Amino acid sequence: MNSVIIGIFTWILCIGLMFFCVYIISRYAGWFEKHSLKLLILSLILGLGLYFFGYYFRDSILFGGNSEGDFSLAELAASALLSFVSMSRMLVMELDIGELGVVGEIPLFRVLYGLVLLSAICFLATAVLSMLGGAILSRIRIFFLTRFGSRQRIYIIYGFRPEMSHFIEDIRKRHPRSQILIFFQKELEEGEKELVKEMINLGCIKGCVSEQPGKIKDFAIPERGTGNGIIFISSFPDTERNLQTITTLCGLLKKEKKNEIPIRIYGLVSYEICGEIPLQPRYDGFSVHWTDIDQLSVRQVFTAHPLTDSIPGNLFEEGCLNQKIEIAVLGYSEEAPYLYRSLLEEIQFKGVSFRLILIGQGISDQTADFRHMNPGISRLAEIECMDLPLMSDVFFEWLKLNGSRILRFYCMSEDDRMNVRLQRTLCASHITGENPEVYVLAHCRSPLWDETQAVYFGLSEQIFTEEMIIHEKLDRMAAAVHTFYQMYYGESEARAKESWNQTSVFNKESSRSLALHLSSKLYSIGYQLTEKAGTDDFQEYLESHPHVVENLAFGEHLRWEMFFFNRGWTPFSGRLPEGTNKDLKKKCHACLVSWEELKTVGERYGTNYQYLDEHFIRNMDKIAGLTGYGLMKKQNPDSQAEHR
């Protein structure tokens, strides 16, 4: 009976040991694939040493045998030859420990023999699987994750673009123990073998994208819970494919009643290509977020370098800016329309006169859709197109005549090298005056660039980070703005916060635009956001400066108008409609009128729209507090920029 129990226990132990080895090797597949050959050679050397020791001292009297321990060269050579022959048996798991005589009976020797034999077999299998591409190891690891989950956060990247390698590196630095699954497209896996290998070396688990996923397991969503949730990112270069992938995933999660899975879903799309209608919330409570990489490139530079950094604080008078501001954008790229919108919205203050100059060969045709499909822009700003070939004689003539009055230059050509040439040209003081402010669009960094005279933005390593794609810093404030307005209209604080994930892309962009402008509003009255404890004198300041609230509210109405004008909205022509102040299909809004006319519109719809803007200004400190920020008076408001 004891023998049966021992036998069963031994089998259970062996099966458990096998699963443990498979789990460990698949868990650290990248490391084992990289070092498997070295480990195999090491285990064979250890095996050679064990066999040599065993054969040489096989019947030695030192270990209980009957053979004298005298040295014999012939015995030494024979033992070495037998060791080489027997070592190969380890690779086929042939147990020949009985041939080692009395040495083979020593318990310690038998334990060492078993460990070396096991390691040799494991490392041989790992080396063979690595030569086959490592797909089997990845499938084993994915099997473990889908069945048993993980205590660590799981990142699932479905579809892959080369720039995502920066995102992987950032995740590895921030969360070194997290699980990262990458599902490559077949064509990318075949054409970018070095990139795939690099991702595996970072500890990622590699999978293959199914053409038409039909089950949850195709997305590798764990059946059980995880310690820190799941981040799913659809990152195909094609916007339409990302839309289809996320729609399919949410449909399968709903069908199989997996609503309880703690999963956040992100899709990389282009708003310019797909528009906003396909991105409307229709995913039955799942947390779905859409990210436009081109827009992030622009948003990142405006977050770090708002326009007010270039405007001395002493030019503002109680929130008004009675100045003419001119900004030149050189060249055209996919990111250019996002830059135009950000510039037009960011500069809106009471009293400002803004002129946006677009320069480049064929720039009128390239920007025709933006200008003609957004006709309302002309009510608040001037856009001028200069069809000049960049770096031509007429371009340099224009620079000599006009360069000194330009507040900022943005180099936005699709060609990074052209942008760098423009930057060097603009920084020549005899052309544009001393120290012009130059912002250069670049998708990759070169060690030859001089970064002391310009700001480079749009770099892949700046955009493809966890902070930008998943935890975008701006969204902390944008969600607080959304929450504030929802509470103003009667929602509870909990429901208002929850509704951020379910609101439309248009509403999110509106809140982001206001959040981005919040620091500029504060700058205009000598305040700034701080993550430390702020001062409590903001309300006292507003009471002692009664015109500030009205002036900033006036400017906020201009910014809100420009946000709508930037997206093709227009005022109603003729009589205002009954019951509603907007027509979503025709993109008409009753409030797209001057500040003075806004009061009359509010009387028609029973809402004081001027008060709504003023209410926001009076509560900027409370909105900042929702995100953990405070407001602090600047020590020297005029030190941020020099008067141009």
Quick take:
With 644 residues, the chain is an alpha/beta fold.
> What value does the Rg take, in angstroms?
34 Å
End-to-end C-alpha gap: 96 Å
Individual helix count? 27
Question: Based on helices, strands and strand pairing, what is the structural class?
Answer: alpha/beta
Q: What report would you give on this structure?
A:
This protein has 27 helices and 18 strands. The C terminus is likely disordered. It is α/β, with parallel strands linked by helices and 644 residues long. It starts with a helix and ends in an 11-residue tail after the last strand. Helix 12 packs antiparallel against helix 24 and helix 24 crosses helix 26. The longest helix has 28 residues. The chain has a six-stranded parallel beta sheet, sandwiched between helices. A six-stranded parallel beta sheet has the order 11-10-9-12-13-14. Strands 7-8 form a two-stranded antiparallel ribbon.
